[in-house]
Amino acid sequence: MKRALLSVSDKTGLQEFAAGLIDRGFELVSTGGTKATLEKAGLTVTAVEAVTGFPEMLDGRVKTLHPNIHAGILAKRDEPTHMAALKARDIQPIDLVCVNLYPFAATIAKPETTRAEAIEQIDIGGPSALRAAAKNAASVWAVADPADYARVLTGLDEDDAALRTQLAAKVFQITAAYDAQIAAYLDPEPFPQQFTPTFSKVQSLRYGENSYQQAAFYGSPDAPAESLVNAKQLHGKALSFNNIRDADAALAMVNEYQEPTVVAVKHMNPCGIGQGATIEAAWDKAYAADPMSIFGGIIALNRPVDLATAEKMHALFLEIIMAPSFDDDAFAVLAKKKNVRLLTINLAGGPLPERVETVAVNGGVLRQTTDTKIETAADLTVVTKVQPTADQIASLLFAQQVVKHVKSNAIVVAKKGQTLGIGAGQMNRIGSVEIALNEAQQNKHFAGAVMASDAFFPMDDCVEYAAQHDIKAIIQPGGSIRDKDSIAMADKYGIAMVTTGVRHFRH
Predict the structure, then answer these.
(1) Displacement of CA 123 from its chain's centroid (Å)
(2) CB 154, CB 178: distance < 8 Å
(3) Which of 15, 217, 298, 351 has its CA 20 to 30 A from that of 382?
């Protein structure tokens, strides 16, 4: 008779799977809670103590850690000396190991969990048995995921060696991720000597940035609530690779604002950000910021979508609309377009905590703390003869908060909670200034606009160009050896200039 070892914390589908094993001639061996569940279902189960000759010990810390278990799993069936050794010690081979690990990640996700409680959820016997079975996949089935039960039963009928190999690889993926989560918990140092991230597939994607590239979307087990991983899609086509990157950028932006705000994104840069007393008023400003570029854009709102706002958005072609919620009538309007993706998102509800972000490079990754810095009026130093007005300071701070999300070299022209022109990703700063101002001057609300730069001006040409195009106030980090030239140019044209001492490069 074949023998299966079952010891699971997740009892999903267990009874049906165990019954299927019995139907296929397996004897079931099991531990405490799993054994009780199976016996309650009327199934015959052998206690693991009957195999090991020892009771479960140390509050369950030691159950399956015994040669009678591991020799039965690891013995090579085609190696006569191995099989002779089992026979000499009256050890029966174990042909299938079904184990899922203690829920360590779920335990530490609870704020009230103590360190001692977390330690008790570090599984030792489970990973050992699974790894042994996976190592001996030529003969032994290693089953770590309840989602695989049905195909394992089918695979047993067909003696599917390829499936056994696939499940073995899955075991090592699961145990590696498990160990990585434990290591990160025990040592929360953001930049350890060995960095071992773990991600689970959220969804397969039709293709990557281009149709000939393969792609998939993965999420971290400790992804923040306000991340895209935890958004819920209510309607529309599946997200694409580019959708996900753009939506992630939009969500990072909208999470920074407390006032009713609408963010429109194209190619990971904002093309319009608007704030207002209501979400409809914020939409009006975001749309008016750049009515051309918003076409086909990704929209993030930090308030529920009402009917009036939905009707205005419905008039456009938009790829994605994300919001905390949609009023029923608003959803009904937007869902008339079958392809638009409608997502509900979680918002931070306050200042974003500093986290560590990871960026891939060829052959490695870069890690850094996130740019959560938001300047206030107290951070500003006036460096020109002309002092900025209160309205200009408010507009400058708004523009400064936007510019940190724009690819460098970055310039933002704005006024009273509305972007008017954005220059992104140019190889020289004057190029970004020209793009931003060319766009901004087409807006009927341009008079009185201010300008923000993500980094200092290496030359005074940017200031002069801005002055010649009716900019009256500028915010920039300062710190260039030629700051005095830019300040002198601002004084020449009567521009108010403030510095922050903080650069906001985004590559």
Answers:
(1) 26
(2) no
(3) 351
Residues 6 or more apart whose Cβ sits within 8 Å of residue 329: 307, 310
What are the tens digits of pLDDT across the range 198-210?
A: 899 999 999 999 9
3-state secondary structure 57-91: EHHHCECCCCHHHHHHHHCCCCCHHHHHHHHHCCC
Residue range 100-123: mean pLDDT, rounded: 88
pLDDT category of residue 61 using cuts at 50, 70 and 90: confident
Residue type, 55: P
Supply φ then ψ for residue 191, to 5 degrees: -130, 65
Candidate list 267, 337, 373, 445, residue with the active-site label: 267
Q: Contact 356/367 with Cβ under 8 angstroms? A: yes
Residues 430 and 450: beta-carbon distance below 8 Å: no
**Cα 332 to chain centroid, rounded:** 29
The answer to whether the beta carbons of residues 400 and 419 sit under 8 Å apart is no
Answer yes or no: 492 catalytic: no
Helix axes 80-88, 67-74, angle to 10 degrees: 160
**Per-residue pLDDT at 28:** 94
Q: What is the tens place of the pLDDT at every residue in 408-419?
A: 999 999 999 999
Q: How many whole angstroms separate alpha carbon 262 and alpha carbon 139? A: 58
Beta bridge partners of 205: 215
Q: Which of 135, 170, 337, 373 is catalytic?
A: 135
Count helices and strands in the chain by DSSP H and E runs:
18, 21
For residues 137 and 167, is the Cβ–Cβ distance under 8 A? yes
CA dihedral sign, ordered 122, 128, 134, 140:
negative
pLDDT digit string (tens) for 250-304?
A: 999 999 999 999 999 999 999 999 999 999 999 999 999 999 999 999 999 999 9
d(CA 20, CA 157): 11
CB crowding 405-418: b at 16 or more within 10 Å, else e: bbbbbbbbbbbbbb
Phi and psi for 421 in degrees, rounded to 5?
Answer: -160, 140
135 is catalytic: yes
For residue 110, give every residue at least 6 positions away whose Cβ sits within 8 Å of its Cβ, in sequence order, or none.
Answer: none
- Tell me, what amino acid is at 256? E
Q: Which residues, at least 6 apart from 450, have a Cβ–Cβ distance to it below 8 Å?
A: 392, 395, 396, 399, 413, 414, 415, 471, 472, 473, 474, 475
